[in-house]
Amino acid sequence: MNFRELRFARAMKFTIHEINNRTDLLPGITLGYQIYDSCAEVAMALKLAFQFANGMEPFFNDTDSCSKSAAAAVPALVGDSYSISSITMTRMLGLFGIPQAAQEEGICVEYSEVFYRTEPRSKLERVANVIRISTARVIVAFLHEGELRLLLEELTRQPPPPLQWIGDAWIVDPEFVRFNLCAGAIGFGVPRSVIPGLREFLLDLSPAQALKSPLLTEFWESSFSCSLKGSSEGARECDGSEDIRALQNPYTDTSQLRITNMVYKATYAIAHAIHGVICNDTQCDKSAKFTPWHILDKLKTVNFTTKAGYQVSFDANGDPVAVFELINFQYTKDGGLGVITVGQYDTSRPKGQEFSMSRPIIWVGGQTEV
Question: Which alpha helices (DSSP H) does 175-258 contain, by range?
Answer without folding.
Answer: 198-203, 207-211, 214-224
